[in-house]
Write a structure and sequence with these properties.
With 472 residues, the protein is of the alpha+beta class. It has 10 helices and 22 strands. The protein is globular and about 70 Å long.
């Protein structure tokens, strides 16, 4: 495939075109969902095509095609070049690309040390979804809604560009999730949990489904007797999944270099500045084995690497691709952060596995530091505006903290505030760590539409003061 594309790429007039890359994308997807004992969603999808990007006169043009026909591919390149040329006369801030970095590699998914998803039948995968839902539904009559979901996606990206890069990279994501809604009178509580990986199905098969879903059911029903969370500015202890969603949403998106360049980030001018206490270290590492947000090469063919965004409380780097690393003056390390949902979308700086690294305080020491407040557990998602730093997150459960001790359980709650305020108000970072405490989907708008990519997030327990908590 790359040899055929090279012939087409060699025809590009380099005297007027600064850069062209071609990303061949081939994927198969399967999604199975069971709700209330019935199959609700059974879908299978195959998606093939090429995304082509051209840089002319400081402007990018992008076009995609669901075909590998050489003549049609060549026409699509010319369409991307034409769009870039048309935009070059009006663009204010000229784009550029790192033209020195060249990568050649082949990363194939072999499943040698894992379970090939092809070795499990459709019926066996459907049974995973059905069993997940059945355990929850049968746990207690107060569980009024339940579902189980199995999903898999296997893809191959082949990247070739005018720098000379030629990379073939396989990638897979697999996930099993259960969710339940419990009700007693007017009180309704929602919980969810799951397991995810990018290496094969062994981790899912080894997950104790009976035990995990029974515990989830118990948590759903137990929350019906919990008290409402208090509201106001409180001292807060965050469990690893909450920490992960916070650092991903509230800080990670603000550190994506496209937001930095456009000054749509609250930290666009903060490189070298103190973000919080010395024990705060923010890392994103797509090279960790078997995590949902791991990948060997990004969508531009750049090898992934461990990125240290905050070191000892100081902002040191951003998430960069070939373009942002060339354009930024600070925080411009080329670190393999270019990702795209599929060939129909442009690549842009994105996260992989984002977490706060472990600190030096025990759980009991963190509780003592909090004194009186709340312990928020089990993330239920969140939202952030990177330009302002305003965020909101929700927790599935938690506990009151009274005089440095865990007290009564509390129901679903919310937490909001400003990104930099939370980092500055952090008073302790735990010596435990779970970098895979949250495994899910990250969404981000782009010029080709809203894009979603798989991610993981986590960290240790983290204590912070004066955080807005909403109990209702």
């Amino acid at each position: 495939m790359l040899d055929r594309l090279q012939v087409i790429l060699d025809k590009v007039d380099r005297s007027r075109v600064q850069f062209v890359d071609m990303r061949v994308y081939q994927s198969t997807q399967l999604s199975l969902t069971t709700r209330k004992g019935q199959a609700e969603n059974v879908t299978s999808q195959k998606l093939d095509g090429i995304g082509i990007r051209a840089l002319v006169g400081g402007a990018f043009g992008f076009a995609s095609i669901a075909s590998f026909d050489p003549a049609e591919v060549e026409n699509t390149i010319q369409a991307a070049i034409k769009m870039a040329k048309g935009a070059s006369g009006t663009i204010k801030n000229k784009n550029s690309v790192d033209t020195e970095s060249v990568f050649e590699a082949r990363n194939e998914m072999t499943f040698k040390n894992d379970v090939n998803p092809a070795d499990l039948s459709f019926e066996e995968k459907m049974e995973l979804s059905q069993k997940t839902e059945a355990i929850l539904r049968e746990h207690d009559h107060r569980i009024i809604n339940s579902f189980g979901s199995y999903s898999e996606k296997i893809q191959r990206e082949q990247v070739i560009n005018t720098n000379g890069t030629r990379v073939v990279s396989d990638y897979g994501v697999f996930r099993l999730t259960g969710s339940a809604t419990a009700r007693s009178g007017d009180i309704i509580q929602n919980v969810s949990d799951g397991v995810a990986t990018n290496a094969g199905l062994q981790r899912i098969i080894d997950w104790d489904l009976e035990q995990e879903m029974t515990q989830l059911g118990e948590r759903a029903v137990g929350l019906l007797d919990a008290v409402s969370a208090p509201s106001g500015r409180l001292n807060v202890l965050l469990e690893p999944s909450i920490v992960g969603v916070y650092i991903h949403e509230a800080f990670g998106h603000a550190a994506e270099a496209d937001a930095i360049l456009s000054k749509r980030s609250v930290i666009h001018d903060q490189i070298g500045n103190k973000m919080g206490i010395d024990t705060i270290n923010v890392v994103d590492d797509p090279t960790v084995d078997k995590l949902r947000g791991s990948f060997a090469f990004d969508a531009e063919g750049t090898p992934s690497k461990r990125r240290k965004i905050i070191k000892d409380g100081i902002l040191t780097d951003f998430f960069n691709d070939l373009s942002t690393s060339d354009m930024l003056e600070q925080g411009n390390t080329l670190n393999g952060a270019g990702r795209a949902q599929d060939f129909r979308h442009v690549s842009m700086p994105r996260m992989g596995n984002t977490y706060i690294d472990k600190g030096n305080m025990s759980f009991d020491e963190l509780l003592e530091a909090i004194g009186d407040g709340v312990y928020l557990t089990k993330s239920y998602g969140g939202y952030v505006n990177p330009a302002t730093g305003q965020f909101f997150f929700s927790s599935q459960s938690g506990y009151l903290i009274e005089d440095g001790q865990l007290s009564k359980p509390i129901r679903n709650s919310g937490m909001s505030g400003m990104t930099l305020d939370v980092l500055k108000n952090t008073i302790g970072v735990g010596n435990d760590i779970d970098i895979d405490a949250f495994a899910g989907i990250c969404g981000k708008p782009s010029v080709t539409g809203y894009q979603s990519v798989p991610v993981s997030a986590g960290g240790p327990h983290v204590a912070a003061t004066d955080i807005v908590v909403g109990g209702q």
